[in-house]
TrEMBL record:
Primary location: mitochondrion
Renumbered ranges of Solcar repeats: 1-56, 63-151, 164-251
Protein family membership: Belongs to the mitochondrial carrier (TC 2.A.29) family.
GO molecular-function term, one example from the UniProt record: L-ornithine transmembrane transporter activity
The protein, known as: Mitochondrial carrier
């Protein structure tokens, strides 16, 4: 939806139906292998960089929301090193059509092709547009989580965030996911356009050119195409992510 012209899909449901009709149910899982393999490394790097960012600013176990936002932004920059190639392979695999010619069966054949065609920059295609997205995205992500978690703790546990159960943490994580996309969605659309362009960008990562093209073709609405399914996806995804993170950290702290 982000990449196709406005005349191709009328909305998320239309995209869903056409994908299943034309490519079968498994068409909904195109590009899955790249994030499936890379997500563990990406999230490990992300949360490590976030924790380091907090420690560099304060020794307090309860940093200010401003410090959380700074740490999140820094983590987003560091995370782009891994997130950019993972996103690149996912985007390009998701947007290829069966039987269209020059299609790739998975991320490894595609990665080899990009490197052969464009060298090292072929696999880091869209790096700067990924950085541009990750900075506000993870500032919103972590700040949203900490804000919601502290509010729940104030009302449920007398301010003790370590005593929060699964449901409050799930709700806090879901709120963080909404904050993530709300803070960065237009930049995500631009990143997808850049990473699906015919050749790797040269000037400023292709960000300005992609933004101009979207504005010219679809106006302001073009920067928010696909926003609703991203929000719907983020609610369970971010909720589970933070519940897992919080309970793993609690377990590690007892060792």
């Amino acid at each position: 939806i982000q990449i196709e012209g406005s005349g191709v899909f009328k909305g998320p449901v239309d995209c869903l139906m056409k994908t299943v009709r034309n490519e079968g149910f498994l068409g909904l899982y195109k590009g899955m292998a790249s994030p499936l393999v890379g997500i563990a490394a990406v999230n490990s790097l992300l949360f490590w960089a976030y924790s380091l960012g907090k420690r560099l600013q304060t020794n307090s176990t309860s940093p200010t929301l401003g410090q959380v936002a700074i740490a999140g932004s820094g983590a987003g920059i560091v995370n782009s090193v891994l997130a950019s190639p993972v996103e690149l392979l996912k985007v390009r695999l998701q947007t290829q059509y069966s039987g269209a010619g020059n299609t790739f069966k998975g991320p490894i054949p595609l990665a080899k092709h990009l490197v052969q065609q464009f060298g090292a920059r072929g696999i880091m295609w869209g790096f700067w547009s990924t950085v541009a997205r990750e900075i506000p995205a993870y500032a919103g992500f972590y700040t949203g989580f900490e804000f919601a978690k502290r509010k729940f703790a104030d009302s449920l546990t007398g301010g003790n965030v370590d005593k929060l159960g699964v449901l409050p943490l799930m709700a806090s994580g879901s709120f963080a996911g909404i904050c993530y996309w709300t803070a960065s969605y237009p930049l995500d659309v631009i990143k997808s356009r850049v990473q699906n362009s015919p050749v790797p960008p040269k000037r400023l990562g292709g960000i300005i050119e992609a933004a101009q093209a979207i504005s010219k073709e679809q106006g302001v609405k073009g920067f928010f195409r696909g926003y609703s399914p991203s929000i719907i996806r983020s609610i369970p995804a971010a909720g589970v992510t933070f519940v897992a993170y919080e309970f793993v950290m609690r377990g590690l702290n007892t060792i």
